[in-house]
C-alpha cells in the first residue's frame, strides 16, 4: 500500500499551504475521526495521502488543457486510480474506487458530496486543517504568497474572490462556514472549538486594525 515515504515524493515543490506537512496534519485528524467513527482506515489513510497530489503535479496531468480551470480534487482522484492500479499487488477495484471517491469529494467548492463514511472522514479532516489557529496561519501564508492586504472590510453578499480579497474575506466567505459543513459527529465536535477560536481572532484583529485595543 502507499507509504509515507512514497507519498512525500508526490508533494515536491508544493506551496506551504498544501505541502506534505498539511497532509500529515490531515492524516492525524483523519485517524482520530476515522477510528472514533468506525471507518475503514485503509481507505481513509490512502485517500488522505493522495488527496492533494494534483496541486503539486499539475504539469504531469496529460489531459489538463488549462490547469487553472481544472478541479484539483477530480484530477487527484483520477491520478490516484492510476497510482493504485499500478501497485503490486494491486488493491481491489472497490478499494480503488472508495479511495477515488473520498479524494474527489474532499473539496469545499465542488458539487460532489461525500457519500461514504470514509469520504466524510477525509472531508472533515481536510476542512478542519483550514480552521482554528492553523487555519488562520494558512490563510495568512496564502495571502503572503499572493500579496494580499492583511485586512479588509467585507461587503454584504460578498461573492468571493477578486483583487481585494484578504484573509478576513476568506474567513467570512469560506472558513466561517466550515463548521456547518462537517459530516461526522467527531468532526463537528472538533470544529466547534476551532470555529470559536477563529471568531475571537478576527474580532480581536478588527479591534486592533481600528486602534480600539
Core attributes:
213 residues; mainly alpha; Hypothetical protein af1432; Methane Monooxygenase Hydroxylase, Chain G, domain 1; 2 domains; 59% helix; elongated
What does this 3D model show about the protein?
The chain is mainly α and 213 residues long. The protein folds into two domains: 1-112, Hypothetical protein af1432 (Orthogonal Bundle); 130-213, Methane Monooxygenase Hydroxylase, Chain G, domain 1 (Up-down Bundle), CATH 1.20.58. It is 59% helix and 0% strand. The chain is built from eleven helices and no strands. Residues 58-68 have low confidence and may be disordered.
What is the topology?
Layout: H1 4-9, H2 20-37, H3 41-50, H4 53-56, H5 72-85, H6 93-104, H7 117-128, H8 132-145, H9 167-173, H10 178-181, H11 185-209
Helix pairs in contact: 2-3, 2-7, 3-6, 3-7, 5-6, 6-7, 7-11, 8-11
Give a brief description:
This protein is mainly α. It has helices spanning about 5-10, 20-35, 40-50, 55, 70-85, 95-105, 115-130, 130-145, 165-175, 180, 185-210.
Amino acid at each position: 500500500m502507499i507509504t509515507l515515504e512514497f507519498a512525500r515524493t508526490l508533494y515536491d515543490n508544493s506551496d506551504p499551504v498544501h505541502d506534505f506537512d498539511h497532509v500529515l496534519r490531515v492524516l492525524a485528524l483523519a485517524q482520530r475521526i476515522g477510528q472514533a467513527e468506525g471507518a475503514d482506515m485503509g481507505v481513509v489513510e490512502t485517500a488522505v495521502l493522495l488527496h492533494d497530489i494534483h496541486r503539486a503535479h499539475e504539469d504531469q496531468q496529460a489531459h489538463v488543457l488549462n490547469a487553472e480551470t481544472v478541479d484539483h480534487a477530480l484530477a487527484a482522484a483520477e491520478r490516484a486510480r492510476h497510482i493504485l492500479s499500478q501497485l503490486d499487488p494491486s488493491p481491489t477495484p472497490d478499494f480503488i474506487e472508495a479511495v477515488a471517491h473520498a479524494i474527489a469529494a474532499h473539496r469545499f467548492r465542488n458539487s460532489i458530496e461525500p457519500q461514504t463514511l470514509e469520504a466524510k472522514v477525509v472531508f472533515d479532516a481536510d476542512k478542519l486543517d483550514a480552521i482554528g489557529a492553523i487555519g488562520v496561519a494558512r490563510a495568512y501564508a496564502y495571502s503572503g504568497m499572493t500579496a494580499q492586504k492583511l485586512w479588509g472590510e467585507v461587503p454584504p453578499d460578498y461573492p468571493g474572490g477578486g483583487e481585494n480579497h484578504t484573509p478576513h474575506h476568506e474567513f467570512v466567505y469560506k472558513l466561517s462556514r466550515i463548521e456547518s459543513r462537517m459530516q461526522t459527529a467527531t468532526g463537528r465536535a472538533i470544529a466547534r472549538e476551532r470555529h470559536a477560536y477563529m471568531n475571537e481572532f478576527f474580532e480581536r484583529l478588527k479591534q486592533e486594525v481600528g486602534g480600539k485595543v
